[in-house]
Amino acid sequence: MFQHALPERPADYRVVVEAATGLRVGSAECDITPAVGGYMAGFSLARTSTAVASPLKVRALVVETGGRRFAIVGIDNLGVMREDVDWIKAGLPGFANGDVFLCASHTHAGPDLIGLWGYYLLGSGRDRDYVVRLREATASAVAAARAAAAPATFVRGEARLPPTGLVKNANRPEVFDRRVTVLQAKALDDGRPLGTLLHLACHPEVLPRRNTELSADFVGELCDAWRARGHGQAVFANGALGAMVSPTGQSRDLAGAHCMGVALCDLAEAALRSAAPLAVDTIEVRRRDVFLPLVSAGFRLGRLTTALERELYAGHARSTVGFLRLGSFAAVAVPGEMEPGLAEQMRAQLQRPDLLVFGLCDDEVGYLLREKDAVDPEFAYERSMSPCRSAGERVRRAITGR
Fold first, then answer.
1. Chain centroid to CA 323: how far?
2. Which end of the chain is more exposed for a tag (fewer CB within 10 A), N or C?
3. How far apart are CA 367 and CA 379, in angstroms?
4. Cα(396)–Cα(402) distance, rounded to whole angstroms?
5. What are the pLDDT digits (tens) for 144-155?
6. Given phi > 0 = left and psi -120 to 50 = alpha, else beta, which region is 39?
7. Residue 280 and residue 20: Cα distance in Å, rounded?
8. E strands, 274-354, where?
């Protein structure tokens, strides 16, 4: 099913746009809560939803300049496959595919868009009708963001997660990205917020494995608190959360998700209070395809049973990496759950210590590990949820060029 030859050269893309005419920025959101009863992604097979604890959203931040439009889109879901992402982007008139960054929040309390968590790998858990709805909702959110766009300027701020009590790395306690980054667009005429990117690295899994209620987990609570405090629309992008950066110190229920969202909103507000103007003279986007051998047993079985509806290229899954620069603000887009040590190695190679990682962006291929961790027995689970042991290094090389 869906086998192709490997291309001689991976497709790539680059655009640089001068912002001499200024920026227009807008933001909006749209509800994407599915009907109760479908398969849920993550944790365990054959888990179906029984209620709605909090709504799921698609949130869009649109930036326009020099006749081009760019978008960062956040989706409350565990992850979206490359093939579906390309189809969703094709429904956004006026946008080039590469100029849209679609970032999944990685909530484990949303519908299965991958297909691996259906009925014991004998059938896909992916609801194709819901993918259609997601495409339509994304187009609506982006269109509403464009309609709300106004002349803008940006500010950027940063706060730090506490070393303990909120976020932990279960495998490497001392290794996680403690930054909480805020990038906010303000209207030139009156300074009102036009949209905010909120970025940090953590699995949204305050709600436990046994949970069967649909929820955006702490991400929804964070974005709702941000709006309630007068800061306007937020769009969330997760970071290098892999192996295994997760919440700690909260009760494993909706009250705990609320408490974590409020605590993170406090930190984001601190970042905003210390924010400095960000001059955006140019916007740069780069993209490159990356091909990952699909050799892990679970992924191969999922595809053989058609639960995983993924095209292959000589046994490789086609994925993508990316780069976004707004003035001095820069982020790389990776197609899965990058281990924070690998992200730090990448920053050092690129000599960009402030570089952000947009995790689960435009694809979900599982865990992305450093070479030494890919053979460490401690990371056996993460290896089983990755297409191959070299996936992380292949993604790193596609971004750094070495």
1. 14
2. C
3. 10
4. 8
5. 999 999 999 999
6. beta
7. 9
8. 276-278, 282-293, 312-313, 316-326, 329-333, 337-338
Phi and psi at 386, nearest 5°, equal: -140, 145
Between CA 148 and CA 126 the distance in angstroms is 33
**What HEC string does 98-117 produce?**
HHEEEEECCCCCCECCCCCC
For residues 377-386, one letter each, b for 16 or more C-beta atoms within 10 angstroms of the residue's C-beta and e for the rest, the string is eebeebbebb
- How far apart, in whole angstroms, are the C-alpha atoms of residue 329 and residue 270? 19
What does the block give as tokens for 244?
């295994």
SS3 257: helix
Helix (H) or strand (E) holding 398: helix 391-400
Q: Interior CA angle at 143 toward 219 and 183, to 5°?
A: 45
> In DSSP terms, which residues pair with 336 in a beta bridge?
none
C-beta of residue 287 within 8 angstroms of C-beta of residue 243: no
- The amino acid at 221: E
- State whether residue 207 is helix, strand or coil: coil
pLDDT at 335 over 90: yes
Specify whether the CB–CB gap between 110 and 36 falls below 8 A. no
Question: Could you give the CA distance from residue 338 to residue 201 in angstroms, rounded to a whole number?
Answer: 10
As given in the structure block, the two tokens for residue 109 are 């309390």
- What element of type H or E holds 185? strand 179-187
Contacts of 358 (CB under 8 A, 6+ apart): 72, 101, 103, 199, 237, 238, 239, 322, 324, 331, 332, 333, 334
Which of these, 62, 72, 197, 56, lies nearest to 113 by C-alpha position? 56
229-256, pLDDT tens digit by residue? Answer: 999 999 999 999 998 999 999 999 999 9
Rounded to an integer, what distance in angstroms lies between the CA atom of residue 168 and that of residue 373?
A: 18
Distance of alpha carbon 342 from alpha carbon 340, whole angstroms: 5
Helix 391-400 crosses helix 340-350 at what angle (to 10 degrees)?
20
> DSSP H helical segments within 5-127, as ranges?
82-90
